[in-house]
Specification:
Order of helices and strands: EEEHEEEHHHEHEHEEHHEEEEEEEEEE
Strand order of the largest sheet: 6-7-8-3-9-10
Number of strands: 20
Structural class: alpha+beta
CATH class of the largest domain: Alpha Beta
CATH superfamily of the largest domain: P-loop containing nucleotide triphosphate hydrolases
Number of helices: 8
Shape: elongated
Number of domains: 2
Largest sheet: 6 strands, mixed
CATH topology of the largest domain: Rossmann fold
Distance between the termini: 37 Å
CATH architecture of the largest domain: 3-Layer(aba) Sandwich
Bound molecules: adenosine-5'-triphosphate
Length: 363
């Protein structure tokens, strides 16, 4: 099912006398999620991810704009008539019901033409349980399950009605690191198997990058960039997107462009033909440094950390905006620790130049 948001806006009235202006949680969102895709809404806390999801589910009403599922305008439909499956961070299973009864629950409330026979309901519940691999746990109560198993029950419950759209709001937040990893792979597998258009809310860029077909990167209710994870990483539109994606984080420097050359401090570190003269912000991905003792860019060496195949060089520079610079280079590089400095050439594909007032990308 294709999902289309048209000029969707949600304002909340301010309750703060000192800041009487409305909060614009979702500001004029205009994008299409293609049928069968897994799309991540990604951004820092308060950027409007949950509000967007709640508008799509019908739990919130938009201030303006429309939502379409395929050709259907669902903007005014209540949640129960939209054909959605919802999974939240705190999955709120019914504690007194077994896994089987929890999964059956949404089917028992179907009315009119959607009403199902008992055997059909049992069959659908078992199929959903099999999909998330909890069919052997049907007789247990939620308290007798691990966190990951509980989350799977919540997913099975959301899938049992075969929703047109599956909406997941930080579904992995309550799981420990190992389970998070495992469950996110599960979500990807289930999504691929069912082909249900899925919208996944997270503030964790690594999580979003690893399982989503497409990312919607947001901040303060505004969409900053939409695209496939790799293309957003390789081609960020602005400084915020460049800084939000990637671990270790991109290194950011104050730079100056003069006659087609990019200077950081005194050193001309890269040719940036076509960029206007003046002060800029420079982002260099950790993998953008190429060790070369005669390289153009010299940093104060702090220490190195060996990570197996690669080493992480931790360094300083007066023009860097972060406390530490991190460069990831091959472990075969010979770095002279006694020298106190380390020099690099830069891979131009891993260096981004931004306007220092608007943060928009220039190079
Ligand atoms: P988080 O990751 O912390 O859950 P989020 O990106 O999901 O954040 P939202 O919950 O969508 O963010 O909130 C977006 C903005 O709207 C925030 O500034 C929030 O304070 C505000 N907001 C959300 N719900 C309401 C409400 N019912 N009344 C007033 N303001 C609200």
């Amino acid at each position: 099912m294709k999902v289309v948001l048209k000029n969707l806006t949600k304002r909340f009235p301010s309750r703060d006398k000192n800041h009487p202006e409305d909060v614009i949680a979702v500001n004029n969102f205009d994008f299409t999620i293609e049928d069968g895709k897994l799309v991540g809404l990604l951004g820092p806390s308060g950027c409007g991810k949950s509000t967007t999801l709640n508008l799509i589910s019908g739990l919130e009403k938009p201030t303006a704009g429309q939502i379409f599922f395929g050709e259907d305008d669902v903007t005014k439909l209540p949640p129960e008539n939209r054909g959605i499956g919802l999974v939240f961070q705190n999955y709120a299973l019914y504690p007194h019901l077994t896994v089987r009864q929890n999964i059956l629950f949404p089917l028992q409330n179907l009315k009119g033409k959607d009403k199902m026979s008992k055997p059909d309901m049992e069959k659908a519940a078992l199929e959903a349980a099999k999909l998330v691999q909890i069919d052997s746990l049907m007789a247990r109560k939620p308290s007798e399950l691990s966190g990951g198993q509980q989350q799977r029950v919540a997913i099975a419950r959301a899938l049992v009605k075969m929703p047109r759209v599956l909406l997941l709001d930080e579904p992995l937040s309550n799981l420990d690191a190992r389970l998070r990893l495992q469950t996110r792979e599960e979500i990807r597998r289930i999504q691929k198997e069912t082909g249900i258009t899925t919208i996944f809310v997270t503030h964790d860029q690594e999580e979003a990058m690893s399982i989503c077909d497409e990312l919607v990167v947001m901040k303060d209710g505004v969409i900053h960039q939409i695209g496939a994870p790799q293309s957003v990483y390789d081609d960020p539109k602005n400084l915020f997107v460049a800084m939000f994606l990637g671990t270790p984080q991109i290194n950011v420097f104050d730079g100056v462009v003069k006659a087609g050359k990019l200077y950081i401090g005194e050193e001309a570190v890269l040719d940036v033909e076509g960029v206007r003269d003046g002060s800029v912000s420079v982002g260099i991905r950790p993998e953008g440094f190429k060790h070369d003792e005669n390289g153009a860019f010299t940093l104060k060496l702090e220490r190195i950390e060996v990570m197996g195949r690669d080493i992480s060089v931790i360094a300083h520079h007066d023009k860097c905006r972060q406390a530490d610079i991190r460069a990831i280079i091959s472990s075969e590089s010979n770095i002279d620790l006694g020298k106190g400095t380390v020099s690099f050439n830069l891979n131009p594909r891993k260096v981004f130049v931004f306007d220092d007032r608007t943060d928009e990308r220039l190079f």
